Amino acid sequence: MGAPPQHLITTLLGDYWISRPEQLPSAALVRLTEEFGVSAVAARAALSRLTKRELLESSRIGRRTYYRLTDRAAAVLLEGRQRIMSFGLAQGAWDGTWAMAAFSISEEQRDLRHALRARLRWLGFAPLYDGLWVSPTANADSAAAVLAELEIPMSTVFRAEALGVAGMRAPQEAWDFDQLRRTYEDFVARYSPLLERVRRGVVGASEALVARTGIMDTWRTFPNHDPDLPVELLPAGWPRAAARDLFVEVYDTLGPLAEFRVKQIVAEFEPGLAELVAHHRTSSILALS
């Protein structure tokens, strides 16, 4: 699927080993990444880097090394997973107000500008103008917290209603709806053949693991482009719901097969841990929110 090894390892642990206190042998994690075409050398280097970043904790028993997610990493993954799995669900009526984040950062502080923009996008904002970011759905307090954390003094956050004056730019023009539509349509075109094979029951366990990880890894990028824009702002025939239905059916249906493959691999190294491997359905994740 082409994901960086560090990202792949945390994704797999988040999908099949989230919040477990037990540690998995490094050999099992290396073997899991080989299913995705990652070399053993690259996988072991990724495990080492994740440990240095304090996303994994490790221990040694004899000549074997074992790993698990740190509590902090697991908490971040759980929070992100809730947002990813709830993305695209039907919403209540929008109240018509916009969260606005205004700021000024000098050109010399490019790293700070990049960090702020990435954080605001994750919260659901987009740039109406360079220093004015807007969102119909984001929590304004969360934006204020990010600005405070990054220590940006020339900034403010507020909520407002658009006047809708003719000739003036509407807040929703911060998003490129044509590009967004193409992104959803490309997703549906890419994964529809897989959905047909899933429905026919012709996907094996190894392919199920790779395909399930791949579709989730693609779906998780959508909140960076579309903050679950309210239906009141969307063009007619918007394809988000169809894309979500496809994602949910593939992800949930392939879950048992993918879990079986992870259990097979873990059992090669620690049979006693294999039965603790578990997958999660979108509905079970949403029930925790």
TrEMBL record:
Residues in Transcriptional repressor PaaX-like C-terminal domain copies: 175-259
Superkingdom of this protein's organism: Bacteria
Pfam families attached to this UniProt entry: PaaX (PF07848), PaaX_C (PF08223), PaaX_M (PF20803)
Biological processes annotated in GO: DNA-templated transcription
Transcriptional repressor PaaX-like N-terminal domain ranges (all copies): 7-73
Residue span, Transcriptional repressor PaaX-like central Cas2-like domain: 93-165
Protein's name according to its UniProt entry: PaaX family transcriptional regulator
